[in-house]
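Note to self: the last two entries modelled the partners one at a time, which told us nothing about the interface. This time every component goes in together.
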Amino acid sequence: MPDSAPAEALRPLILIAEDDPNIREALAFVLRRERFPFLETDDGLEALRLLREKRPALAFLDVMLPGMDGITVCETVKKDPALQGIRIVFLTAMGQTIDFQRGYRAGADAYFSKPFSPGGLIQKVKNMLGIS
Amino acid sequence: MGDSSVAPPEGAAPPAPFPPRACGSLVVAVGLPLSGLLWFGAAWEDGRFLPYASLLILGILLVVTAVLARRLRSAVEESDRRNVAAEASVQRLQEMDRLKSDFLASVSHELRTPLTSVRSFSEILLNYPDEDLETRTRFLKIINEESQRLTNLINDVLDLAKIEAGRIAWNMSVCLLEEAIDRSVEVAKGLEPEKEIRIVLDRPEAMPALFGDRDRLLQACLNLIGNAVKFSPPKSEILVRAGVEGTEPGRLWFSVTDQGPGIPAALKDRLFRKFEQIQESGAPKPSGTGLGLAISREIVEAHGGTIEVDSEEGKGTTFRVILPAWKRDTEFRTSMEFWIRQSVRRGYPLSVLVLGSDEATDPVDFSKRLKALMIHTVRSSLDNVVLHERPGFVAVFILASLFAAERIRERVLDRIRKGEMPADPTSVPNCRWAVEEHPKDGADVGTLSAILSKRLQAPGAGMPANAIRESPAKGE
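The predicted structure of the combined assembly is written out below.
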């Protein structure tokens, strides 16, 4: 999936966990254009496995994922001392206050409700990872 | 959706004229000491106690007390009954409110996903104009498809909301189920051609007609067959069958069987819920709005039919729809029941006053069938036509020959003239009424359906203008 252009090694690895193929493609496109290496999955359990094995710097998590929901994945990551430092950004179609609260209680670092702006999302990611 | 004309349930209003409990306390607090004083005053004469007088007074007091107590008890019971009815109504409204909120949350959730694609890819096209033509074309195609998905979703949501609220314009006529089936099969053959699915149709040459909305029946059929195509593996077979059950007039059925993944038993109950899509783990999210089955069920049930599912995991699924067949003799009843069911779905408390009798349409049988629909039926003679003043009453159906209907109409007009019935039914809170007649030969059932449909679907009105005043009896 990720291209292996030499410049990409300079930027931190990002995980996309999203079950809608179109949204996944949009995220992948923007990350590729912004020279971020990335991994993709459409399943919560697979996302957790990739988080443990590949240790990305940041993960986009859809809240409603097959296998394991995003909230549980996030809680598991935040409780695991070995996975400290991984930033979690929720992407969700649920836009109500209570959903935001659930996300932040689970330890999310940022929360984007759909439909989001890919440009805004990337800007946020750059800020969070200290990339200008 | 906010329909302000929904009548309160029977018995919830008006409030009791005075608070019965307070009245009771007053009787006890004032009545007892007062009667005690009276007793002593009347029975004590010249320093002597008159035993007979005192017994008489005591007896009168007992009788008065008993009468008062009885009145009090019935007033309290009445008040309790009203409270229970009001509470039930509040609970029902709260439940409806909760369902509406859940539905709204689901709709907004389902709209956000395709909208995300549209927004993301259009922004990408604007921000990265240097991308090659092929990629840009693919992104435009996604935007196009996703906006189509949004359109379908909005149409389905509106359809379902309209059907649920009873606001859909049903176009009822005598029609053929096989037309809907054949057309659906034809359309379904064009869906997902790359999967090379074979659709086999097995139905009798001719089937009895049914009383229904042609387009809506087609929508339900197409939903079921389209679903089968969606969940079928490539190169598999879908069997569409139809037939007739029973006679006079019997029931029509059709079924759709696929060789798809099947539905786990635990999930069967959720199948007809809104936005429920059964997703195999690891499989991509199924396309569609998740509303098709909910809409199909609404359509089938509106026609007095049922829809059921039979499935075994890994062995495919069969959906089976059963619908009542049409018969000329029962046409009047079928159409009345349809419209009454619609008005009930809109939440109007409904009583049906069935008057008169007719050889072709037996009112007793009609009443029984309405009871099965949970509709309160009053079968009545002319003398208690005044029953129409019950709150929430909607319709008077005169199931009678033209001649009898004319006589009943005369009597009703007479009662209005004498002031025994309100001339303007709107003066009675929550009361709308109409007199419909049923010509003996049942020939103009279409007209009757049209009148009822107009009235039940009139914005903000449960019913009816005053039919009697609109068409006064002869000689007026």
